[in-house]
Amino acid sequence: GVLQIGAVPLSWDRLGIEPGPVVIADSAAIAGRAAVWQMAMDEAFWDGYGMNGARVYYAGKALLCAALVKELTAIGLGIDTASLGELTLALRAGANPAGVGLHGNAKTDAELELAVSAGIGRIIIDSLPEIDRIAAIARAHNTSAPLMVRVTTGVHAGGHDFIATAHEDQKFGLSLATGVARAAAEKIAATPGVHLIGLHSHIGSQIMDLAGFEVAARALLTLRRDLIAAGISVDEVDLGGGYGVAYTGVDAPGPSQKLVADTLAAVVRTACAELDTPVPVVSIEPGRSIIAPTCVSLYPVIATKDVTTESGQIRRYIAVDGGMSDNIRPVLYNASYSATLANRLPGGATVSSRIVGKHCESGDILIPDAELPSDITPGDIIAIPVTGAYGRAMASNYNMALRPGVLALADGAASWWLRPETLADLFALDTQLSET
Ligand code: LLP
């Protein structure tokens, strides 16, 4: 890619930035991955015989800023949001409201008010009381709000990743099995101020095996058939996000955009034929699979030390500026990453190394066990790839850390999409702190 980690000596000078944790985004790679999703879906869901085409909504929770909204909407993607902040950002960055969606299991009045007044294309409801709240707001605006019902499909298969949000006893969605999802659709159809546009399912995240999506799609399409039979039309079915990516060299590659699109199209086509219903518009909401592989995090090495483990081995600790405040995923999910020395060629042998952050927690580990050159020393730069999704987006100010900037590389030039946070940004919130 643009950065050519390992091939070109990298320096903070060459990047034109101060040393510190930073997320480098390859803007061409982002546009490329988004365009491939859109093309794969368009191709798979268009045959001139009743397949209506497809829509791709980027799940903004993975990483969101105005530049991303502009790049992705220019390619034709919609933006999926899940909070007042994400929704406001998407709209202010110029996304066409018709291509914006709002999720959430606890949507506030402020979120619903903005969604309805801006006229966004879909609000995905996650509870029954929400329906009346939205309807009241929409009637006050003399409009009708387009709703989808988030359905808990009950998809579960032992040992698969998609267990995460598909089972019954978790907070998301309305149950298919107990009839609540159907009741929600019927309630929407009967309530002035709202109308039903579709059914939605999101079964989990970082999913490598597409079988769960097929089961969920069938479940949604069957509910749709029942609703159609009851006189309630359902034009769209959204199969959610969750398509996995490889994080390290030993991971299998995630399902390609084309494999996902072709697999979903095949199951939708077959199921609709069996159910004797027209094929709906199909949409998806990938976040991670668009953004994760397009970013690399850089960290300055601050300190190293050798520690003798309980089994008598030497383990090298490499402490970097950064850590769990800019990437919580290793701590929170045991997520794996790999690391490379990025600023020079390595000298000599490798040593079992643990990359740790600077926070006041012994669990602040970015990579527990990496084979790294034994001559890594303060001043070196460590690169950790595949950090585009849920890194900066879940960053915190723990220990009053400054959240890293996102530096976009395009056509050989670097520019900030998000500038690095400053102490002034941080202290601006403190009403009792004097200027000096
Ligand atoms: N749609 C809905 C309704 C979602 O809840 C999510 C993710 C997505 C789409 C996008 O999923 P993706 O394609 O990015 O897998 N923080 C975790 C991931 C949480 C995902 C939450 N929902 C992580 O760092 O792995």
Automatic annotation (TrEMBL):
<comment type="similarity">
    <text>Belongs to the Orn/Lys/Arg decarboxylase class-II family. LysA subfamily.</text>
</comment>
<keyword id="KW-0456">Lyase</keyword>
<feature type="binding site">
    <location>
        <position position="288"/>
    </location>
    <ligand>
        <name>substrate</name>
    </ligand>
</feature>
<feature type="domain" description="Orn/DAP/Arg decarboxylase 2 C-terminal">
    <location>
        <begin position="294"/>
        <end position="388"/>
    </location>
</feature>
<feature type="binding site">
    <location>
        <position position="329"/>
    </location>
    <ligand>
        <name>substrate</name>
    </ligand>
</feature>
<feature type="binding site">
    <location>
        <position position="333"/>
    </location>
    <ligand>
        <name>substrate</name>
    </ligand>
</feature>
<feature type="binding site">
    <location>
        <position position="242"/>
    </location>
    <ligand>
        <name>pyridoxal 5'-phosphate</name>
    </ligand>
</feature>
<keyword id="KW-0210">Decarboxylase</keyword>
<dbReference type="GO" id="GO:0009089">
    <property type="term" value="P:lysine biosynthetic process via diaminopimelate"/>
</dbReference>
<keyword id="KW-0663">Pyridoxal phosphate</keyword>
<comment type="function">
    <text>Specifically catalyzes the decarboxylation of meso-diaminopimelate (meso-DAP) to L-lysine.</text>
</comment>
<dbReference type="InterPro" id="IPR009006">
    <property type="entry name" value="Ala_racemase/Decarboxylase_C"/>
</dbReference>
<feature type="modified residue" description="N6-(pyridoxal phosphate)lysine">
    <location>
        <position position="61"/>
    </location>
</feature>
<dbReference type="InterPro" id="IPR022644">
    <property type="entry name" value="De-COase2_N"/>
</dbReference>
<dbReference type="Pfam" id="PF00278">
    <property type="entry name" value="Orn_DAP_Arg_deC"/>
</dbReference>
<dbReference type="InterPro" id="IPR022643">
    <property type="entry name" value="De-COase2_C"/>
</dbReference>
<feature type="binding site">
    <location>
        <position position="361"/>
    </location>
    <ligand>
        <name>substrate</name>
    </ligand>
</feature>
<protein>
    <recommendedName>
        <fullName>Diaminopimelate decarboxylase</fullName>
        <ecNumber>4.1.1.20</ecNumber>
    </recommendedName>
</protein>
<feature type="binding site">
    <location>
        <begin position="285"/>
        <end position="288"/>
    </location>
    <ligand>
        <name>pyridoxal 5'-phosphate</name>
    </ligand>
</feature>
<feature type="domain" description="Orn/DAP/Arg decarboxylase 2 N-terminal">
    <location>
        <begin position="53"/>
        <end position="292"/>
    </location>
</feature>
<dbReference type="InterPro" id="IPR000183">
    <property type="entry name" value="Orn/DAP/Arg_de-COase"/>
</dbReference>
<feature type="binding site">
    <location>
        <position position="390"/>
    </location>
    <ligand>
        <name>pyridoxal 5'-phosphate</name>
    </ligand>
</feature>
<dbReference type="GO" id="GO:0008836">
    <property type="term" value="F:diaminopimelate decarboxylase activity"/>
</dbReference>
<feature type="binding site">
    <location>
        <position position="390"/>
    </location>
    <ligand>
        <name>substrate</name>
    </ligand>
</feature>
<keyword id="KW-0028">Amino-acid biosynthesis</keyword>
<dbReference type="InterPro" id="IPR029066">
    <property type="entry name" value="PLP-binding_barrel"/>
</dbReference>
<feature type="active site" description="Proton donor">
    <location>
        <position position="360"/>
    </location>
</feature>
<dbReference type="InterPro" id="IPR022653">
    <property type="entry name" value="De-COase2_pyr-phos_BS"/>
</dbReference>
<comment type="pathway">
    <text>Amino-acid biosynthesis; L-lysine biosynthesis via DAP pathway; L-lysine from DL-2,6-diaminopimelate: step 1/1.</text>
</comment>
<dbReference type="InterPro" id="IPR002986">
    <property type="entry name" value="DAP_deCOOHase_LysA"/>
</dbReference>
<keyword id="KW-0457">Lysine biosynthesis</keyword>
<comment type="subunit">
    <text>Homodimer.</text>
</comment>
<dbReference type="Pfam" id="PF02784">
    <property type="entry name" value="Orn_Arg_deC_N"/>
</dbReference>
<dbReference type="GO" id="GO:0030170">
    <property type="term" value="F:pyridoxal phosphate binding"/>
</dbReference>
